[in-house]
Amino acid sequence: MRILVTGGAGFLGSHLCAAILARGDEVVAIDNFATSDYSAIKRLSHNDRFHFVEADVCTAPPVTGRFDAIAHLACPASPDEYLRLPLETLAIGSHGSEFVLRLAELNRCRVLLASTSEIYGDPLVRPQREDYWGNVNPIGPRSVYDESKRYAEALFTAHRRALGTNTAIVRIFNTYGPGLRPNDGRVVSNFIAQALNGEPLTVYGDGQQTRSFCYVTDLVGGLLRMLHSIEPGPVNLGNPNEITVLELAETIRLLTGSDVPLDFRPAPQDDPTTRRPDISKAAALLGWTPEVPLAEGLERTIAWQRSLSAVPA
Ligand code: UDP
Fold first, then answer.
1. Domain tally, the chain
2. Residue 309: per-residue pLDDT
3. Is 145 annotated in the active site?
4. Is 266 among the domain residues?
5. Could you tell which of 194, 197, 211 is best to mutate to test the pocket of ligand 1, judged by most ligand atoms within 8 Å of the CB?
6. Which residues have any ligand 1 atom within 6 Å of their CB?
């Protein structure tokens, strides 16, 4: 198969490209390095089934040849980064989605949208099932991400209804693992970087807010199952093991053997207080459930972040 991955140099994108190459297929990856860098794909670039196009998906870059499937992952995903790139974040959900849908229609192939648990905003139900419509502030700072993905979901659904396009929507919950850049701004990489550097862990708010963290290889397994199914979705992909930010801080202190203090900072506006996927749909339709326990995934992530600082500049 020949598969197009937008955001192919990103955290999830680069892992997805690696998995596709590992099973013997061909990948064309597009990325403009807005929130990623070449180091993520360096190990893939020697493979002659890996092709890279440095471009912004919103500019409809010229990609040639036939595709058997498209995965649209391009988008800033860390709150720090989408707040820094608000217009780009909205554009990738609208113009970027338009581009991949047209390409899928030209190729008569399946096209998968990497949507998000942020669709649910600050949810009023727990756990979140796909039939929950969400609680999103349309003009708050996070809306650039939430509404970009909500618009992309609407656009994918409209193309399926109007044109019969073979669309797939997955809603991805918090994901972590090797490859999540230490300066990305998300909680797992921040806490590990801070613990390894002997700095206080920055806890936003009172730390009682919850998240459910999924290890990256589990998540990529779910993406591939969805990509090769016939389900339209939306389907939640994530690990239902829900913990507070304080519990995460404690676990990372324990696993790094660091006794750094906590540094409480103001909570970001509209920071969701709870987040936990109901994954019964993914289990029933795709036969998918995550397998890597949090402590094991964090150990691997810590080892990877340690290896980065061991490399001479
Ligand atoms: N968070 C934190 N300290 C940090 C970074 C994030 O306490 O250094 C909190 C953040 O306020 C949120 C949770 O951790 O409640 C997860 O944040 P992240 O940016 O990883 O992803 P989000 O789920 O908000 O998209």
1. 1
2. 78
3. yes
4. no
5. 211
6. 78-79, 174, 186-187, 190, 202-204, 209, 211, 245, 268, 271
CATH number at residue 157: 3.40.50.720
Whether 68 is in a domain gets the answer yes
Confirm whether 227 is domain-assigned: yes
| CA–CA distance, 251 with 213 (Å, rounded to integer) | 13
Strand order in the sheet with 69-72: 50-54, 26-31, 2-6, 69-72, 110-116, 167-172, 235-237
Strand runs labelled E in the chain: 2-6, 26-31, 50-54, 69-72, 110-116, 167-172, 175-176, 201-204, 210-212, 214-215, 235-237, 242-244, 262-265
3-state helix, strand, coil in the chain (%, to 5): 40, 20, 40
Would you say 209 and 243 are in contact if contact means Cβ atoms under 8 Å apart?
A: no
Distance CA 120, CA 122 (A): 6
Domain of 148, in residue numbers? 2-176+213-239+276-291
Question: Which are the contacts of 221, defined by CB distance < 8 A and separation ≥ 6?
Answer: 19, 288
Tokens of 161: 């209804």
Q: Whose CA is nearest to atom 11 of ligand 1?
A: 204
For 224-282, give the DSSP string. Answer: HHHHTS-----EEES---EEEHHHHHHHHHHHHT--PPEEEEPPPTT--S---B--HHH
One digit per residue, the tens of pLDDT, for the chain of length 313 reads 999 999 999 999 999 999 999 999 999 999 999 999 999 999 999 999 999 999 999 999 989 999 999 999 999 999 999 999 999 999 999 999 999 999 999 999 999 999 999 999 999 999 999 999 999 999 999 999 999 999 999 999 999 999 999 999 999 999 999 999 999 999 999 999 999 999 999 999 999 999 999 999 999 999 999 999 999 999 999 999 999 999 999 999 999 999 999 999 999 999 999 999 999 999 999 999 999 999 999 999 999 999 997 654 4
- Note whether residue 249 is domain-resident: no
